[in-house]
Amino acid sequence: MFTNKDVKLGICPIGWSNDDMWDLGDENTFQQCISEMRLAGFTGCEIGHKYPSDVKELKEALDLRGMTVASKWFSSFLGTKPFEETFEEFKKEIEYLCYAGATAINISEQSYSIQGNPDLSIFKNKARFTDAEFAQMCDGLNKLAEYAKSNGIRACFHHHMGTCVQTLEETERMLNNTSDDLLLCYDTGHWTFSEVDPMAILNEFPNRIGHVHLKNMRRAICDQAIKESWSFLKSVRNGAFTVPGDPEGCVDFEPVLRKLDEIGYEGWIMVEAEQDPAKANPFKYAKMAYEYITDLMAK
Which residues form the Xylose isomerase-like TIM barrel domain (predicted)? Predict the structure, then answer.
């Protein structure tokens, strides 16, 4: 698979230190994180809260290890705030990413988001936009995507549990009401958690895939979280997520990778799994994922 295509493998630091719950992995340093990423085989990463804020310092540390920044999370509030407020922050992030050598920015619409609330169910308490708010978000996304593209960065929307663009229906609506410049940060774990076949969006919008998160889920814990209407953070703490290659995982990654190859995807494929590093050793799971994915890609 992916013969003669520019496809690179990276991993997110959230397995070493969690960005929503800082007590998970607080003992793990930035230097340890990126060293173990590279030792496991990966050449790219996303940005975590333990990373230095000085982009020059960050780039030097990654260059020493033959690594680069693939992308970075960006929280937008397009549906509920004036566009200019989001745009000013967005421009700073684009400048940062251009210097760091990244190719994508992962936009997550955080208006009314409950993903960081440990007490609210991502199923029962998830908010929904009014038609006017949804239209305002889409208009803002088009503007962000146009600006990012003019700077050589892919603007990739991250559908996410606990937000107003969580379900397949909401994601389809967003893609149908935005320009082709706005791409998708495609995440297998979030599709599975929202009880959607991860293949659905690949088949429906093959030309809109701009960045890929390969995230696995432990079926029994996922089912319990859905049945008992857990919050996103409770799901993370209880081990709902894991990496590709984990025997406890339920996501079938082979058809996903084959479809990405078929549609001509080029770019970063990132391993991401919000886990408690005290229970799931980050280096062990990073190696597990790298070996599993490279074996699949060699078929």
Answer: 39-281
Residue-wise pLDDT for 222-280, tens only, equals 999 999 999 999 999 999 999 999 999 999 999 999 999 999 999 999 999 999 999 99
Residue 259 corresponds to which tokens in the numbers above?
């479809």
Contacts of residue 76, defined as CB under 8 A and 6 or more positions apart, other chains included, come to: 86, 90, 107, 108, 109, 110, 111, 137, 140, 141, 144
Is residue 9 within 8 A of residue 211, CB to CB? The reply is no
pTM for this prediction: 0.96
Show the domains of the chain with their CATH numbers.
7-297 (3.20.20.150)
Question: What are the helix and strand counts (H, E) for the chain?
Answer: 11, 11
258-265: long-range contacts at Cβ-Cβ below 8 A with a sequence spacing of 24 or more?
258/1, 259/199, 259/202, 259/203, 259/206, 260/2, 260/202, 260/209, 260/212, 261/1, 261/2, 261/5, 263/202, 263/206, 263/207, 263/209, 264/5, 265/5, 265/7, 265/209, 265/212
Question: Which residue is it, tokens 């970063």?
Answer: 268
